[in-house]
Write a structure and sequence with these properties.
The complex is a heterodimer.
Chain A: E1 4-7, E2 10-13, E3 19-25, E4 31-37, E5 43-51, E6 54-57, E7 64-66, E8 76-78, E9 87-94, E10 105-106, E11 110-114
Chain B: E1 4-7, E2 10-14, E3 19-25, E4 32-37, E5 43-49, E6 55-58, E7 61-66, E8 71-76, E9 85-92, E10 100-102, E11 106-111
Parallel strand pairs in B: 2-11
Antiparallel strand pairs in B: 1-3, 3-8, 4-5, 4-9, 6-7, 7-8, 9-10, 9-11
The chains are: A mainly beta, B mainly beta.
Chain lengths: ~120, ~110
Amino acid sequence: NAGVTQTPKFQVLKTGQSMTLQCAQDMNHEYMSWYRQDPGMGLRLIHYSVGAGITDQGEVPNGYNVSRSTTEDFPLRLLSAAPSQTSVYFCASSYGGVGAKNIQYFGAGTRLSVL
Amino acid sequence: ELKVEQNPLFLSMQEGKNYTIYCNYSTTSDRLYWYRQDPGKSLESLFVLLSNGAVKQEGRLMASLDTKARLSTLHITAAVHDLSATYFCAVERGRGTYKYIFGTGTRLKVLA
């Protein structure tokens, strides 16, 4: 059981480049989310999805796009990378639904540096 | 705006000692999570607390929730080196919103 899989694990970009961080889960979870983790700031929610075709913004959505065409996949797109987007990115998923515990399962993370 | 504050931010303790990490949040929420993160690793779930007065225990860790005080505690009993990690609490910004706000984390180091 793979759980939540993120690719790539490491990435270096130049300012202005675009890229997509991939996230896939095999647990049939409805809820998926993207966080960024910066030193001293905990995790901050970028975007989230409560099911295929449904996405919404979190705390820090600017500069990022998401889409959810299938239950399994939730890619995060950086449109024009900036040094401020240097961070560690985590994808997470949970069962979702009213009354569910919604414990999130996290991927291994993607370490992104923007030069 | 929902804020989640943890203290202390850093904690260095001797093996065998007891200590408590505090998580305060600023608005009403009846669901609180604790996660653990080892250095350079991902996060793993420790506890989910779903109601006022909820208490969960796993090994040397015990978590509790007081929704009236908007406070959760993570108590460590007789610490061992393997508990060294960063501990995060997280709160849902309103039931059913799926917007989770994380505290800044408590970095725990247990010294042999």
